[in-house]
Task: inverse folding
Protein backbone atom coordinates (compact mmCIF):
# COMPACT_ATOMS: atom_id res chain seq x y z
CA UNK A 1 0.00 0.00 0.00
CA UNK A 2 2.83 2.39 0.90
CA UNK A 3 4.52 1.67 -2.43
CA UNK A 4 1.27 2.40 -4.28
CA UNK A 5 0.81 5.70 -2.44
CA UNK A 6 4.41 6.64 -3.18
CA UNK A 7 3.97 5.82 -6.86
CA UNK A 8 0.69 7.76 -6.93
CA UNK A 9 2.39 10.81 -5.41
CA UNK A 10 5.27 10.51 -7.88
CA UNK A 11 2.78 10.56 -10.77
CA UNK A 12 1.02 13.61 -9.34
CA UNK A 13 4.36 15.37 -8.89
CA UNK A 14 5.21 14.73 -12.54
CA UNK A 15 1.83 16.07 -13.68
CA UNK A 16 2.15 19.12 -11.46
CA UNK A 17 5.60 19.77 -12.90
CA UNK A 18 3.93 20.19 -16.29
CA UNK A 19 0.87 22.10 -15.06
CA UNK A 20 2.98 24.58 -13.13
CA UNK A 21 5.81 24.85 -15.61
CA UNK A 22 7.42 28.29 -15.61
CA UNK A 23 5.74 29.00 -18.95
CA UNK A 24 2.31 28.72 -17.29
CA UNK A 25 3.30 31.35 -14.73
CA UNK A 26 4.55 33.66 -17.46
CA UNK A 27 1.30 33.18 -19.37
CA UNK A 28 -0.84 34.09 -16.34
CA UNK A 29 1.21 37.22 -15.74
CA UNK A 30 0.97 38.14 -19.43
CA UNK A 31 -2.83 37.88 -19.30
CA UNK A 32 -2.81 40.20 -16.29
CA UNK A 33 -0.73 42.73 -18.25
CA UNK A 34 -3.10 42.35 -21.22
CA UNK A 35 -6.24 43.14 -19.21
CA UNK A 36 -4.48 45.99 -17.40
CA UNK A 37 -3.89 47.84 -20.66
CA UNK A 38 -7.14 46.61 -22.27
CA UNK A 39 -9.18 48.06 -19.41
CA UNK A 40 -7.19 51.28 -19.29
CA UNK A 41 -5.66 50.45 -15.90
CA UNK A 42 -8.69 49.22 -13.99
CA UNK A 43 -6.58 49.31 -10.81
CA UNK A 44 -7.40 53.02 -10.54
CA UNK A 45 -11.14 52.37 -10.45
CA UNK A 46 -10.67 49.64 -7.81
CA UNK A 47 -9.07 52.16 -5.44
CA UNK A 48 -11.67 54.85 -6.12
CA UNK A 49 -15.04 53.54 -7.31
CA UNK A 50 -14.48 50.11 -5.75
CA UNK A 51 -14.06 51.60 -2.27
CA UNK A 52 -17.21 53.70 -2.75
CA UNK A 53 -19.18 50.61 -3.76
CA UNK A 54 -18.01 48.73 -0.65
CA UNK A 55 -19.18 51.64 1.50
CA UNK A 56 -22.71 51.09 0.20
CA UNK A 57 -23.03 54.25 -1.91
CA UNK A 58 -24.57 52.27 -4.79
CA UNK A 59 -26.53 49.61 -2.86
CA UNK A 60 -30.10 48.80 -3.85
CA UNK A 61 -32.05 46.18 -1.91
CA UNK A 62 -34.11 45.36 -5.04
CA UNK A 63 -31.02 44.06 -6.88
CA UNK A 64 -30.60 40.27 -7.13
CA UNK A 65 -28.13 38.67 -4.75
CA UNK A 66 -27.71 37.29 -1.25
CA UNK A 67 -24.98 39.40 0.38
CA UNK A 68 -23.64 42.93 0.03
CA UNK A 69 -20.39 43.94 -1.66
CA UNK A 70 -18.40 44.08 1.56
CA UNK A 71 -19.52 40.59 2.60
CA UNK A 72 -18.75 39.20 -0.86
CA UNK A 73 -15.26 40.71 -0.72
CA UNK A 74 -14.80 39.38 2.82
CA UNK A 75 -15.91 35.89 1.80
CA UNK A 76 -13.43 35.88 -1.08
CA UNK A 77 -10.64 37.36 1.06
CA UNK A 78 -11.25 34.82 3.81
CA UNK A 79 -10.27 32.13 1.30
CA UNK A 80 -7.19 33.96 0.03
CA UNK A 81 -5.83 35.71 3.13
CA UNK A 82 -4.64 32.74 5.11
CA UNK A 83 -1.71 30.50 5.88
CA UNK A 84 -0.13 31.45 2.55
CA UNK A 85 0.32 35.01 3.79
CA UNK A 86 2.03 33.72 6.92
CA UNK A 87 4.04 30.77 5.60
CA UNK A 88 4.09 31.27 1.84
CA UNK A 89 5.82 34.64 2.06
CA UNK A 90 8.43 33.12 4.37
CA UNK A 91 9.12 30.38 1.83
CA UNK A 92 9.52 32.95 -0.95
CA UNK A 93 12.09 34.91 1.07
CA UNK A 94 13.94 31.83 2.31
CA UNK A 95 14.38 30.48 -1.22
CA UNK A 96 14.16 33.55 -3.46
CA UNK A 97 15.58 36.21 -1.18
CA UNK A 98 14.23 39.73 -0.57
CA UNK A 99 13.88 40.32 -4.33
CA UNK A 100 10.98 37.85 -4.46
CA UNK A 101 8.85 40.42 -2.63
CA UNK A 102 9.27 42.95 -5.45
CA UNK A 103 7.94 40.44 -7.98
CA UNK A 104 5.09 39.64 -5.62
CA UNK A 105 4.18 43.32 -5.80
CA UNK A 106 4.28 43.24 -9.60
CA UNK A 107 2.01 40.20 -9.76
CA UNK A 108 -0.28 41.73 -7.13
CA UNK A 109 -0.79 44.88 -9.20
CA UNK A 110 -1.43 43.08 -12.49
CA UNK A 111 -3.45 40.47 -10.60
CA UNK A 112 -5.98 43.20 -9.82
CA UNK A 113 -6.83 43.30 -13.54
CA UNK A 114 -7.14 39.51 -13.67
CA UNK A 115 -9.49 39.47 -10.69
CA UNK A 116 -11.59 42.35 -12.05
CA UNK A 117 -12.00 40.59 -15.39
CA UNK A 118 -12.84 37.10 -14.15
CA UNK A 119 -15.36 38.38 -11.61
CA UNK A 120 -17.00 40.66 -14.19
CA UNK A 121 -17.39 37.68 -16.51
CA UNK A 122 -18.94 35.55 -13.79
CA UNK A 123 -21.38 38.32 -12.91
CA UNK A 124 -22.37 38.67 -16.58
CA UNK A 125 -23.28 35.00 -16.89
CA UNK A 126 -24.42 34.11 -13.39
CA UNK A 127 -27.69 32.26 -12.81
CA UNK A 128 -30.21 34.51 -11.02
CA UNK A 129 -33.34 32.37 -11.41
CA UNK A 130 -33.53 32.51 -7.63
CA UNK A 131 -32.57 36.13 -6.88
CA UNK A 132 -31.91 35.26 -3.24
CA UNK A 133 -29.49 32.43 -4.08
CA UNK A 134 -27.63 33.27 -7.32
CA UNK A 135 -25.03 30.90 -8.77
CA UNK A 136 -21.95 31.88 -10.72
CA UNK A 137 -18.38 31.05 -11.61
CA UNK A 138 -16.31 29.95 -14.61
CA UNK A 139 -18.56 26.91 -15.16
CA UNK A 140 -21.51 29.18 -15.89
CA UNK A 141 -19.36 31.54 -17.97
CA UNK A 142 -18.25 28.81 -20.37
CA UNK A 143 -21.65 27.11 -20.67
CA UNK A 144 -23.83 30.20 -20.98
CA UNK A 145 -21.21 32.11 -22.97
CA UNK A 146 -20.87 29.40 -25.61
CA UNK A 147 -24.65 28.86 -25.70
CA UNK A 148 -25.23 32.54 -26.42
CA UNK A 149 -22.82 32.34 -29.34
CA UNK A 150 -24.33 29.13 -30.68
CA UNK A 151 -27.00 27.04 -28.85
CA UNK A 152 -25.42 23.86 -30.26
CA UNK A 153 -22.25 24.60 -28.29
CA UNK A 154 -23.98 24.35 -24.88
CA UNK A 155 -23.06 20.63 -24.39
CA UNK A 156 -19.40 21.49 -24.98
CA UNK A 157 -19.62 24.28 -22.44
CA UNK A 158 -21.35 21.92 -20.02
CA UNK A 159 -18.54 19.35 -20.29
CA UNK A 160 -15.87 21.97 -19.68
CA UNK A 161 -17.90 23.35 -16.77
CA UNK A 162 -18.15 19.91 -15.16
CA UNK A 163 -14.40 19.42 -15.62
CA UNK A 164 -13.76 22.72 -13.88
CA UNK A 165 -16.08 21.73 -11.00
CA UNK A 166 -14.32 18.37 -10.54
CA UNK A 167 -10.97 20.11 -10.16
CA UNK A 168 -12.68 22.68 -7.94
CA UNK A 169 -13.91 19.93 -5.61
CA UNK A 170 -10.44 18.35 -5.47
CA UNK A 171 -8.94 21.68 -4.46
CA UNK A 172 -11.81 22.30 -2.02
CA UNK A 173 -11.50 19.06 -0.06
CA UNK A 174 -7.69 19.05 0.01
CA UNK A 175 -6.28 22.59 0.05
CA UNK A 176 -9.42 24.39 1.17
CA UNK A 177 -10.27 21.88 3.88
CA UNK A 178 -7.93 19.06 4.95
CA UNK A 179 -4.70 20.98 4.48
CA UNK A 180 -6.02 23.81 6.66
CA UNK A 181 -7.46 21.49 9.33
CA UNK A 182 -4.31 19.39 9.54
CA UNK A 183 -2.02 22.40 9.88
CA UNK A 184 -4.13 23.90 12.67
CA UNK A 185 -4.21 20.54 14.47
CA UNK A 186 -0.41 20.24 14.28
CA UNK A 187 0.16 23.83 15.45
CA UNK A 188 -2.35 23.46 18.31
CA UNK A 189 -0.98 20.13 19.53
CA UNK A 190 2.56 21.51 19.42
CA UNK A 191 1.61 24.73 21.22
CA UNK A 192 -1.06 23.61 23.70
CA UNK A 193 -0.77 19.81 23.82
CA UNK A 194 -4.39 19.25 22.68
CA UNK A 195 -4.71 15.95 20.72
CA UNK A 196 -5.14 16.44 16.99
CA UNK A 197 -8.43 14.47 16.68
CA UNK A 198 -10.03 16.71 19.33
CA UNK A 199 -8.81 19.80 17.49
CA UNK A 200 -10.31 18.39 14.27
CA UNK A 201 -13.66 17.75 15.96
CA UNK A 202 -13.76 21.33 17.31
CA UNK A 203 -12.99 22.72 13.86
CA UNK A 204 -15.67 20.56 12.27
CA UNK A 205 -18.32 21.80 14.71
CA UNK A 206 -17.38 25.45 14.20
CA UNK A 207 -17.27 25.19 10.41
CA UNK A 208 -20.48 23.14 10.27
CA UNK A 209 -22.36 25.68 12.38
CA UNK A 210 -21.54 28.32 9.77
CA UNK A 211 -21.82 26.53 6.42
CA UNK A 212 -25.12 24.81 7.23
CA UNK A 213 -26.63 28.30 7.30
CA UNK A 214 -25.84 28.95 3.63
CA UNK A 215 -24.12 31.85 1.90
CA UNK A 216 -25.89 34.52 3.96
CA UNK A 217 -24.45 33.14 7.19
CA UNK A 218 -21.06 32.57 5.50
CA UNK A 219 -21.05 36.19 4.33
CA UNK A 220 -22.07 37.45 7.77
CA UNK A 221 -19.37 35.45 9.57
CA UNK A 222 -16.70 36.30 7.00
CA UNK A 223 -17.63 39.97 7.28
CA UNK A 224 -16.75 39.81 10.96
CA UNK A 225 -13.81 37.39 10.98
CA UNK A 226 -11.78 38.90 8.13
CA UNK A 227 -11.49 42.42 9.57
CA UNK A 228 -10.71 41.05 13.04
CA UNK A 229 -8.06 38.57 11.92
CA UNK A 230 -6.41 41.10 9.62
CA UNK A 231 -6.46 43.78 12.32
CA UNK A 232 -4.84 41.52 14.95
CA UNK A 233 -2.15 40.36 12.57
CA UNK A 234 -1.45 43.86 11.26
CA UNK A 235 -1.24 45.35 14.77
CA UNK A 236 1.39 42.77 15.71
CA UNK A 237 3.26 43.42 12.45
CA UNK A 238 3.20 47.19 13.01
CA UNK A 239 4.56 46.62 16.51
CA UNK A 240 7.57 44.75 15.10
CA UNK A 241 8.07 47.38 12.42
CA UNK A 242 7.82 50.10 15.06
CA UNK A 243 10.68 48.48 16.97
CA UNK A 244 12.74 48.31 13.77
CA UNK A 245 11.42 51.55 12.28
CA UNK A 246 14.89 52.80 11.36
CA UNK A 247 15.54 49.66 9.28
CA UNK A 248 12.43 49.93 7.07
CA UNK A 249 13.92 52.23 4.38
CA UNK A 250 16.94 49.95 4.06
CA UNK A 251 14.66 46.89 3.82
CA UNK A 252 12.57 48.47 1.06
CA UNK A 253 15.73 49.36 -0.83
CA UNK A 254 17.01 45.80 -0.35
CA UNK A 255 13.79 44.40 -1.84
CA UNK A 256 14.08 46.54 -4.98
CA UNK A 257 17.82 46.05 -5.47
CA UNK A 258 17.64 42.29 -4.89
CA UNK A 259 14.87 41.99 -7.48
CA UNK A 260 17.39 42.73 -10.25
CA UNK A 261 20.70 41.72 -8.68
CA UNK A 262 21.34 38.37 -6.98
CA UNK A 263 20.86 38.56 -3.24
CA UNK A 264 24.12 37.91 -1.44
CA UNK A 265 24.42 34.90 0.83
CA UNK A 266 24.74 35.55 4.54
CA UNK A 267 23.89 33.80 7.79
CA UNK A 268 21.14 31.23 7.20
CA UNK A 269 20.53 32.48 3.62
CA UNK A 270 22.52 30.65 0.91
CA UNK A 271 21.77 33.16 -1.86
CA UNK A 272 19.35 33.48 -4.76
CA UNK A 273 19.69 34.42 -8.41
CA UNK A 274 17.50 36.90 -10.27
CA UNK A 275 15.54 34.02 -11.83
CA UNK A 276 14.89 32.34 -8.50
CA UNK A 277 13.65 35.58 -6.93
CA UNK A 278 11.41 36.23 -9.94
CA UNK A 279 9.85 32.76 -10.00
CA UNK A 280 9.27 32.49 -6.25
CA UNK A 281 7.74 35.95 -6.12
CA UNK A 282 5.37 35.05 -8.95
CA UNK A 283 4.42 31.68 -7.53
CA UNK A 284 3.63 32.91 -4.04
CA UNK A 285 1.63 35.91 -5.28
CA UNK A 286 -0.38 33.83 -7.75
CA UNK A 287 -1.09 31.06 -5.27
CA UNK A 288 -1.86 33.40 -2.38
CA UNK A 289 -4.28 35.72 -4.21
CA UNK A 290 -5.76 32.96 -6.43
CA UNK A 291 -5.85 35.34 -9.39
CA UNK A 292 -6.93 33.65 -12.60
CA UNK A 293 -7.90 30.48 -10.75
CA UNK A 294 -11.64 31.06 -10.95
CA UNK A 295 -12.47 30.37 -7.30
CA UNK A 296 -13.25 33.80 -5.84
CA UNK A 297 -15.70 34.72 -8.67
CA UNK A 298 -17.96 32.06 -7.15
CA UNK A 299 -18.20 34.06 -3.91
CA UNK A 300 -18.57 37.39 -5.69
CA UNK A 301 -21.42 35.99 -7.79
CA UNK A 302 -23.58 36.00 -4.66
CA UNK A 303 -23.26 39.79 -4.34
CA UNK A 304 -26.40 41.91 -4.39
CA UNK A 305 -26.07 44.03 -7.53
CA UNK A 306 -27.55 44.44 -10.97
CA UNK A 307 -24.31 45.77 -12.46
CA UNK A 308 -21.70 43.06 -13.20
CA UNK A 309 -18.78 45.50 -13.53
CA UNK A 310 -19.54 47.00 -10.14
CA UNK A 311 -18.68 43.77 -8.36
CA UNK A 312 -15.72 43.18 -10.67
CA UNK A 313 -14.21 46.49 -9.58
CA UNK A 314 -14.69 45.54 -5.92
CA UNK A 315 -12.93 42.23 -6.56
CA UNK A 316 -9.95 44.11 -7.93
CA UNK A 317 -9.10 45.11 -4.36
CA UNK A 318 -8.46 41.49 -3.35
CA UNK A 319 -4.91 41.08 -4.68
CA UNK A 320 -3.98 44.49 -3.29
CA UNK A 321 -5.15 43.61 0.24
CA UNK A 322 -3.80 40.06 0.10
CA UNK A 323 -0.45 40.65 -1.60
CA UNK A 324 0.47 44.32 -1.36
CA UNK A 325 -0.71 44.86 2.23
CA UNK A 326 -0.72 41.63 4.27
CA UNK A 327 2.09 39.81 2.46
CA UNK A 328 4.28 42.92 2.41
CA UNK A 329 3.95 43.42 6.16
CA UNK A 330 4.88 39.77 6.72
CA UNK A 331 7.93 40.18 4.51
CA UNK A 332 9.06 43.37 6.29
CA UNK A 333 8.73 41.63 9.66
CA UNK A 334 10.94 38.76 8.44
CA UNK A 335 13.50 41.08 6.86
CA UNK A 336 13.70 43.78 9.55
CA UNK A 337 13.94 41.22 12.36
CA UNK A 338 16.87 39.52 10.64
CA UNK A 339 15.15 36.13 10.73
CA UNK A 340 15.90 35.41 7.07
CA UNK A 341 19.72 35.72 7.39
CA UNK A 342 20.02 35.08 11.13
CA UNK A 343 23.09 33.76 12.95
CA UNK A 344 23.23 30.17 14.12
CA UNK A 345 21.51 29.05 17.32
CA UNK A 346 24.53 26.96 18.30
CA UNK A 347 28.16 26.49 17.26
CA UNK A 348 30.37 23.46 16.80
CA UNK A 349 33.09 23.33 19.44
CA UNK A 350 35.35 21.78 16.81
CA UNK A 351 34.66 22.02 13.10
CA UNK A 352 33.59 18.56 11.86
CA UNK A 353 34.60 17.19 8.49
CA UNK A 354 32.60 15.48 5.76
CA UNK A 355 32.86 11.76 5.13
CA UNK A 356 31.54 9.73 2.22
CA UNK A 357 27.93 8.58 2.58
CA UNK A 358 26.49 5.30 1.33
CA UNK A 359 25.61 6.56 -2.16
CA UNK A 360 28.06 7.83 -4.77
CA UNK A 361 29.05 11.52 -4.64
CA UNK A 362 27.14 11.93 -1.36
CA UNK A 363 28.68 13.29 1.82
CA UNK A 364 27.62 13.60 5.45
CA UNK A 365 29.10 15.08 8.62
CA UNK A 366 31.15 12.85 10.87
CA UNK A 367 29.87 14.43 14.08
CA UNK A 368 26.47 13.77 15.69
CA UNK A 369 26.99 15.80 18.87
CA UNK A 370 24.64 18.78 19.17
CA UNK A 371 25.98 21.71 21.22
CA UNK A 372 23.58 23.62 23.44
CA UNK A 373 21.94 26.75 22.06
CA UNK A 374 23.43 30.11 22.84
CA UNK A 375 21.81 32.01 25.69
CA UNK A 376 20.29 34.54 23.25
CA UNK A 377 18.84 31.85 20.98
CA UNK A 378 17.39 29.87 23.88
CA UNK A 379 15.68 33.01 25.20
CA UNK A 380 13.91 33.41 21.86
CA UNK A 381 12.99 29.85 20.91
CA UNK A 382 13.71 27.68 23.94
CA UNK A 383 16.11 24.73 24.21
CA UNK A 384 16.49 21.93 21.66
CA UNK A 385 13.80 19.28 21.61
CA UNK A 386 13.31 15.99 19.82
CA UNK A 387 11.95 16.45 16.32
CA UNK A 388 13.67 19.79 15.64
CA UNK A 389 15.28 20.04 12.23
CA UNK A 390 18.65 21.75 11.99
CA UNK A 391 21.10 22.53 9.22
CA UNK A 392 24.63 23.68 8.60
CA UNK A 393 25.99 25.39 5.50
CA UNK A 394 28.80 23.95 3.39
CA UNK A 395 30.68 24.86 0.24
CA UNK A 396 30.32 22.03 -2.25
CA UNK A 397 32.56 23.39 -5.01
CA UNK A 398 30.04 23.45 -7.87
CA UNK A 399 28.09 26.69 -8.32
CA UNK A 400 24.32 26.26 -8.17
CA UNK A 401 22.88 28.41 -11.01
CA UNK A 402 19.66 28.98 -9.08
CA UNK A 403 21.47 30.61 -6.15
CA UNK A 404 24.61 31.88 -7.83
CA UNK A 405 26.81 30.35 -5.10
CA UNK A 406 28.38 27.00 -4.27
CA UNK A 407 26.71 26.92 -0.86
CA UNK A 408 24.45 24.04 0.18
CA UNK A 409 22.50 23.17 3.28
CA UNK A 410 23.03 19.83 5.00
CA UNK A 411 20.05 19.05 7.22
CA UNK A 412 19.56 16.74 10.15
CA UNK A 413 17.00 15.71 12.76
CA UNK A 414 17.44 16.26 16.48
CA UNK A 415 17.06 13.06 18.52
CA UNK A 416 17.70 12.11 22.13
CA UNK A 417 21.13 10.73 22.92
CA UNK A 418 20.62 7.05 23.89
CA UNK A 419 23.27 7.29 26.60
CA UNK A 420 21.79 10.25 28.46
CA UNK A 421 18.41 11.93 28.57
CA UNK A 422 20.04 15.32 29.07
CA UNK A 423 21.93 15.45 25.75
CA UNK A 424 20.89 15.67 22.12
CA UNK A 425 22.46 14.54 18.91
CA UNK A 426 21.82 15.04 15.21
CA UNK A 427 21.12 12.40 12.59
CA UNK A 428 22.61 14.21 9.60
CA UNK A 429 21.42 13.66 6.07
CA UNK A 430 23.72 14.06 3.08
CA UNK A 431 24.51 16.45 0.24
CA UNK A 432 25.74 15.69 -3.26
CA UNK A 433 29.15 16.88 -4.42
CA UNK A 434 31.89 15.54 -6.65
CA UNK A 435 34.50 16.40 -4.02
CA UNK A 436 34.33 16.54 -0.24
CA UNK A 437 32.46 19.70 0.89
CA UNK A 438 33.78 22.05 3.55
CA UNK A 439 31.69 23.75 6.23
CA UNK A 440 31.30 27.46 5.57
CA UNK A 441 31.12 28.24 9.29
CA UNK A 442 30.72 26.57 12.66
CA UNK A 443 27.09 27.73 12.96
CA UNK A 444 24.21 25.31 13.49
CA UNK A 445 20.81 26.68 12.50
CA UNK A 446 17.33 25.65 13.54
CA UNK A 447 15.34 25.10 10.34
CA UNK A 448 12.23 27.28 10.46
CA UNK A 449 9.98 26.29 7.58
CA UNK A 450 7.12 28.43 6.28
CA UNK A 451 4.97 29.82 9.10
CA UNK A 452 7.61 28.79 11.64
CA UNK A 453 10.01 31.36 10.14
CA UNK A 454 7.38 34.07 10.44
CA UNK A 455 6.69 33.05 14.03
CA UNK A 456 10.42 33.14 14.77
CA UNK A 457 10.63 36.64 13.28
CA UNK A 458 8.01 37.91 15.75
CA UNK A 459 9.68 36.05 18.62
CA UNK A 460 13.01 37.75 17.88
CA UNK A 461 11.37 41.05 18.80
CA UNK A 462 9.17 39.85 21.66
CA UNK A 463 9.71 36.22 22.79
CA UNK A 464 6.40 34.36 22.84
CA UNK A 465 4.63 36.80 20.51
CA UNK A 466 5.18 34.63 17.46
CA UNK A 467 3.97 31.44 19.10
CA UNK A 468 0.65 32.89 20.28
CA UNK A 469 0.10 35.13 17.28
CA UNK A 470 0.65 32.34 14.77
CA UNK A 471 -1.45 29.94 16.83
CA UNK A 472 -4.35 32.39 17.04
CA UNK A 473 -3.97 33.58 13.44
CA UNK A 474 -3.77 30.02 12.14
CA UNK A 475 -7.13 29.23 13.74
CA UNK A 476 -8.82 32.33 12.35
CA UNK A 477 -7.20 32.15 8.93
CA UNK A 478 -7.82 28.43 8.53
CA UNK A 479 -11.44 28.54 9.75
CA UNK A 480 -12.24 31.43 7.42
CA UNK A 481 -10.58 29.63 4.53
CA UNK A 482 -12.51 26.40 5.19
CA UNK A 483 -15.80 28.32 5.45
CA UNK A 484 -15.35 30.11 2.13
CA UNK A 485 -14.00 27.09 0.25
CA UNK A 486 -16.97 25.05 1.45
CA UNK A 487 -19.17 27.44 -0.53
CA UNK A 488 -16.97 27.08 -3.60
CA UNK A 489 -17.31 23.32 -3.46
CA UNK A 490 -21.02 23.60 -2.81
CA UNK A 491 -21.49 25.57 -6.02
CA UNK A 492 -19.56 22.90 -7.89
CA UNK A 493 -21.89 20.24 -6.47
CA UNK A 494 -24.96 22.29 -7.44
CA UNK A 495 -23.66 22.68 -10.99
CA UNK A 496 -22.90 18.97 -11.40
CA UNK A 497 -25.73 17.27 -9.48
CA UNK A 498 -28.23 19.86 -8.26
CA UNK A 499 -29.38 21.24 -4.90
CA UNK A 500 -30.37 17.86 -3.46
CA UNK A 501 -26.72 16.91 -2.92
CA UNK A 502 -25.79 20.05 -0.99
CA UNK A 503 -26.55 18.72 2.53
CA UNK A 504 -24.68 15.40 1.98
CA UNK A 505 -21.76 17.42 0.59
CA UNK A 506 -21.67 19.67 3.66
CA UNK A 507 -21.70 16.67 6.00
CA UNK A 508 -18.86 15.07 4.05
CA UNK A 509 -16.98 18.37 4.10
CA UNK A 510 -17.15 18.51 7.90
CA UNK A 511 -16.18 14.83 8.17
CA UNK A 512 -13.10 15.50 6.02
CA UNK A 513 -11.93 18.03 8.63
CA UNK A 514 -11.87 15.29 11.25
CA UNK A 515 -10.33 12.74 8.87
CA UNK A 516 -7.42 15.09 8.26
CA UNK A 517 -6.52 14.96 11.95
CA UNK A 518 -6.83 11.27 12.86
CA UNK A 519 -3.71 9.97 11.14
CA UNK A 520 -4.96 9.45 7.60
CA UNK A 521 -2.86 12.42 6.52
CA UNK A 522 0.86 11.99 7.17
CA UNK A 523 2.56 14.91 5.42
CA UNK A 524 1.55 18.25 3.98
CA UNK A 525 3.45 17.31 0.80
CA UNK A 526 0.90 14.59 0.02
CA UNK A 527 -2.03 16.96 0.36
CA UNK A 528 -0.15 19.70 -1.49
CA UNK A 529 0.25 17.35 -4.45
CA UNK A 530 -3.53 16.96 -4.76
CA UNK A 531 -4.14 20.63 -4.06
CA UNK A 532 -1.66 21.70 -6.71
CA UNK A 533 -3.31 19.38 -9.22
CA UNK A 534 -6.77 20.86 -8.63
CA UNK A 535 -5.48 24.43 -8.56
CA UNK A 536 -3.38 23.94 -11.68
CA UNK A 537 -6.16 22.48 -13.78
CA UNK A 538 -8.53 25.22 -12.58
CA UNK A 539 -5.96 27.74 -13.78
CA UNK A 540 -5.54 26.05 -17.15
CA UNK A 541 -9.31 25.89 -17.66
CA UNK A 542 -10.10 29.40 -16.44
CA UNK A 543 -7.41 31.44 -18.23
CA UNK A 544 -8.64 30.41 -21.72
CA UNK A 545 -12.21 31.19 -20.60
CA UNK A 546 -11.07 34.67 -19.59
CA UNK A 547 -9.45 35.19 -22.99
CA UNK A 548 -12.43 33.83 -24.95
CA UNK A 549 -14.87 36.17 -23.22
CA UNK A 550 -12.41 38.97 -22.50
CA UNK A 551 -13.84 41.24 -25.18
CA UNK A 552 -17.33 40.97 -23.67
CA UNK A 553 -16.03 41.83 -20.21
CA UNK A 554 -14.06 44.81 -21.50
CA UNK A 555 -17.04 46.06 -23.52
CA UNK A 556 -19.23 46.07 -20.41
CA UNK A 557 -16.41 47.56 -18.34
CA UNK A 558 -15.99 50.57 -20.61
CA UNK A 559 -19.74 50.91 -21.01
CA UNK A 560 -20.34 50.94 -17.27
CA UNK A 561 -17.87 53.75 -16.60
CA UNK A 562 -19.19 55.74 -19.55
CA UNK A 563 -22.67 55.54 -17.98
CA UNK A 564 -21.22 56.39 -14.55
CA UNK A 565 -19.50 59.44 -16.00
CA UNK A 566 -22.74 60.48 -17.71
CA UNK A 567 -24.54 60.43 -14.36
CA UNK A 568 -26.92 57.56 -15.17
CA UNK A 569 -26.55 55.92 -11.75
CA UNK A 570 -28.12 57.14 -8.51
CA UNK A 571 -25.83 57.22 -5.50
CA UNK A 572 -26.55 58.02 -1.88
CA UNK A 573 -24.66 58.56 1.34
CA UNK A 574 -22.39 55.77 2.49
CA UNK A 575 -23.91 53.27 4.90
CA UNK A 576 -22.73 53.03 8.49
CA UNK A 577 -19.92 50.63 9.30
CA UNK A 578 -22.29 48.48 11.34
CA UNK A 579 -24.78 48.17 8.48
CA UNK A 580 -21.99 47.32 6.03
CA UNK A 581 -20.61 44.56 8.23
CA UNK A 582 -24.06 43.17 9.09
CA UNK A 583 -25.17 43.26 5.45
CA UNK A 584 -28.14 45.55 5.93
CA UNK A 585 -29.43 47.04 2.68
CA UNK A 586 -29.18 50.78 2.37
CA UNK A 587 -32.81 51.33 1.43
CA UNK A 588 -34.40 49.00 3.93
Result:
Amino acid sequence: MDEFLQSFNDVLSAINGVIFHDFVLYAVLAVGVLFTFWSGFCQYHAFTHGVAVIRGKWDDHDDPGAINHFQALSAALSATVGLGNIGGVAVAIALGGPGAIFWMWVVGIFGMALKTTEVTQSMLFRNTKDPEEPHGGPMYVIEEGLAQRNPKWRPIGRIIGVLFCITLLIATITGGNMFQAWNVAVVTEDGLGIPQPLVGAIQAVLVGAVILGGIKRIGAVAGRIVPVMCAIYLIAAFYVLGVHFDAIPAMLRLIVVSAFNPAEAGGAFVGASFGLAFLWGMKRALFSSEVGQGSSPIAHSAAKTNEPVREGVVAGLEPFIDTIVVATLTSLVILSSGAWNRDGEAHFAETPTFVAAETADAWTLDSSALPAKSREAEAVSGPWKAGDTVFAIARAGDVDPSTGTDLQRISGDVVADPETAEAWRVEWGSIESAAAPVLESEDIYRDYVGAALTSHAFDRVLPGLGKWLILFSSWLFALSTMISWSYYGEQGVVYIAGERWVVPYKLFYCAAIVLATVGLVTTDAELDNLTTLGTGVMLIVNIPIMLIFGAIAMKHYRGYFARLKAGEFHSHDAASLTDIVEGKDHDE
